[in-house]
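Per-residue structure
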Amino acid sequence: MLELDAPQSERLVAALLKAMGCAAVRRTGKSGDGGGEVRAKLNAAGLAELQLFVQVKRYRATGIIGPAMLQQLRSAIPTGGHGLFVTTSAFSPDAKQVAVQTGFPRIELIDGAQLERLVAEHAGSLRQDLRKLLDFGDATG
């Protein structure tokens, strides 16, 4: 996944969200900090519809996402929205605390290991071009 460029990473996360049941998934491409942005809606069993504001960061596996990046995402989440931060790396302990800080929109975190598991779990639902990029292969191999 680290070999994907930023737009490919955004497409992968958008496709993964669709495979996981989100609707109205779209890439916004408006991030000022080099991270990708995706918007989606998640219907919670017909009881509530959640607006997801997603930040995508492609860092080397040894990279660490700090609290400032989560605070930056939080500032872009409107009232009633929910955050999701997806990275190929990991989150610092301080970043994890910021994600669940009371009085602010919660931000769910998906780190590199979780992302790999989710992609593998939903690979069959991903578009063929994304599966090829991730070396899941095609009918010939």
Observations:
- The first strand starts at residue 23 and ends at 27.
- DSSP finds five helices and seven strands in the chain.
- Residues 6-19 form the longest helix (14 residues).
